[in-house]
Structure formats: C-alpha cells, structure tokens
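Example noted here:
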Amino acid sequence: MTKQQDKPSRSFAGIAGIVAIATLISKVFGLVRQLVMSAAFGLGPAFAGFQYAYTIPGFLLILLGGINGPFYSAVVSVLAKRDKEEAAPLVETITTLIGGILIVVSIVLVIAAPLCVDIFAPGLQEPGKELVREIAIRQLRVMAPMAVLAGLIGIGFGVLNAANVFWLPSISPLFSSIAVVVAVGILYLQIGNKISTPEYAMLGGTVLAGGTLAGALLQWFVQLAAQTKAGMGRIRLRFDFNQPAVKEILKIMLPATFSSGMLQINLYTDLFFASFISTQVAPALANAGLLVQTPLGIISGVILVPLLPIFARLTDPQDWGDLKLRIRQGLFLSAFTMLPLGALMVALANPIVKIVYQRGAFNAEDSALVATLLVANGIGMFVYLGRDVLVRVFYALGDGDTPFRISMVNIFLNALLDFIFIRVIDLGAPGLVLATVGVNCSSVLMLLFLLNRKLNGLPLVEWVLPILGLTAGSLVAGAAAYSTSLGLEQLLGSGNLLIELVQLSISGFVGLAIFGVIASMMKLPEVNLFVSRMRQKILKR
C-alpha cells in the first residue's frame, strides 16, 4: 500500500479474507504446538520454567514482531504515504538501526539471565521451586537472540503489508510452531514417557527453548526472502539515520512500543504475583490465554490489518468524518465478534479445556485450573480488541505519546489490582486475569475520551447503545449455550471424547445461532456489509 504500487489496492473485505485464512492456519498450528507441549510436560517444571524464561523474548516477539505491533504499525503508517522507490533504502536503514540496538539487548539477556528471572519471578527463590528457576535461567539464555529476530520480524510484517503482500506475513508464524513441535517430537522419540519426569525436566526445557529460537529464525528467513523479492530491501547496512522518514518512524515506534506492550507488561506483572502462588499458575495462564488468543488473533488480523492503512489515509481534518465512520466500523466489528465469543468462553470453559488439553501429562486437576482462568479471560475479549482499534487511530494520526501516557498509568493500576485481588481479597489465579481486564477497560475509556477531544467530537451515545445491545445478546447466547451443555451432558453422559466434542459443538452452535438472530434484528450496516462481502469471497474460492 505504498503510494505507488505495481498492482491495484485490494478492498477491505479482500484483505480481510486473505488475512483471516492465513492467520487461521497459523493459529491452528500455534494451538497444536501448545497441545504438544501440554501433553508432553503437563504443568510441570519444564513448561513452568519456559513461561518465565519466555517473558522477555516472548514480550519482544509479540510486541515488536507482532502483525499489529508498533514496528508494524510505524512502518505501514510511514510507507503508506511514500513512493515505492523510497522504500528499500528506508527499510534497510531502519533495520540497521533497530538490529544494532537489539543485538546489545540480546547480549545483556545472556549475561543477566539469573537477575532477569529473579526480577520477573521472585517467588521461584522459595524452597521447592529451585528446579523451575534453574530451568528458566538456561531457557532465557538459549532464547536471548530472539530479541534481534523480534525486531526484524516486526519490520518485515510492516514492509510486506505496505507492499500489498498479506498472505505470507500472516502465515509465517506457523513455521515457528512447526519447529517447536518437531523439537518436542524428536525428544519424545528419544526418551518416551520419561519426558515429563523431573530427571529430564532440564533437558526438556532446553529443547523447548531451542525449538522456539529455531522457529523464530525460520520465520524471519521466510519473510526476508519475500521482502527481497518485492524489492523492499535486503540485508544491507545503511547508516542514513538523519533522513526525515527514519525520524518519522521512530517518532511513532518508540512511544508505541511501550504503550502497545502494556498488555504484555501487565502479563509479566501477573507472572510476578503468580510465582508466589504456585509453579502451575504460569503455564495455566499460558494455556488459558492461548484459547482466547487463537480466535482473538484471527479476528484482530481481519479487522486491524486492513483498517490501519485506511486510518493513515484519513488523517487530514477534512477527512475526519470518514475517519469516524471507520472507527465505528472497527469498534462494531470488534463487539460483533468478541462479545459472543467471550460469552461462549465463559459458558463452556470446562468442556473446552477438557477437550483441548486433557491428555498425556495434562490431568483433570490441570483442566480445572485452566478453566477458571479461561472464564476470566473471556470476560475481557471485547475490550482487548477495542483498545487495539483505538490505539491504531492514534498511531495513524502520528500520536504515539497519548497511548504511551495511558499505558504508564495503567501499568501501575494493574499492579495495584493484582495486589488487591491476590493479597487482599485472595481471588487466587483468576484475580490476575481480572486485574488485566480492569486495566483494559480503563484504557478504552481513556482513549475514547481523548480521541473525542482530538477529533472534535465523536457520536459516543450513538455508538454505545448498539454495543450494549450486542452485549445483551451475548449474555443470552452464553446462557443458552450453558443450558444446552448441561442438558446434553445429562442426556448423553460424559467421558467419551467424541460425545463431549459433539456436546460442545451443539452448545456453541446454539449460542451463536441465538446471537446471530439478535444481531440481525439490530440491522447494523457495518456488520451486514462485512458478513455479505466475506460470504461472497468464500463462495468464490
């Protein structure tokens, strides 16, 4: 979507369809990866250590390398306004600058691995948790180079999307998942069922970390090949750091990196408190989070990827009317997709977790813990995505400072809520997730308030009422799905995977059907247009 390009720009629905299919494939592979790790290690020391060791490299990979991360957002926002001929030198310059900084970060991570683990998980220094701490330290050192790869992957996402290439960036994360599955599979072939025993925990943890690093490297190689083919830059050192476009990217990227990382920083605040509860809480948070992030990642890609360049082209005050319509579109689509899915996650948490995870080393006790966390996650799905839509508007307007300041406030708010929910009220592990949900709600309210002032007024009442209607419809759908699940369990029983899968499918279908009827009665134009266009795209394939 550079200013000049060789092929015509695709429509919103066209881009959304490409991103949806590719992201779906990637997310399925990501879920398979999590299933393999859970079945192999359960919530044991190797998997528990990995959750703490992955805090920094995972933070950087998700934050910097994510398809909706600040590196992606900054690159797309700047390249969308420039000729394609300017792209390659600019990309090579920003890659040189960011790559050099992140190499230093990787070296520091290797040296300071014990200190980093103790900072993020001080509870692991308690008696009985020493093995998890030692595993985490080794894993962090193995995965330290992912700091560099995260930045390069994030830049690659933005460059390829700016070049109107959407399929490969969206599907590239599956290579990372494949590498981890292969690594764990090879280890299982070597030692069999001993893979989950404490004596092989250090070896298993090392294999997990090595497979994760290999997957990130493979993902970058695939992107680099496509980027070179598109004429958008190669591996070349350029030091023209004073050019205006570089400064423009950095102006958006630096504050956006922190503000977009708020959710991840809040997650690590959660892990800090989780380390004092039980070593099982950290991997349980990861398993529950993945069940939410799988549909959330697919839908966020469908909504945010095509909207960001559109936001960037509507920043002139004379275009603010159209910009407000696009903001409404993003929020309504977020509500239409996330509210019913969140309701189903809450209503059907137990059967979902049991069907997805309960096998191998992952037992019924593990399922019960993850299910409680899934309920808490489901409550906040809409505000999670709604916040991302609003933040992208500020990025498009060249304002990364406002989300940054809000993030600063909410990081402290999250720590306070974690302390209250865990140490004062004692809600246990679900309290960690509910604290993050509260922070996301706070972010959405503050972003709307400031955006309302920035754009000389937003029709907030007009927007709120339909969203409340969708919320009510979601509650009805969730209640219907829960009642259907209970009725089918009494009728058909449980214990058989096939029967449980049928029960879950029917219950979910009933809930979605009821929500669909309610939503159709509301006659929201954004939802009707989007659904019709997606249906046309699917039928054409």
Residues 460-492 form the longest helix (33 residues). The chain is about 80% helix and 0% strand.
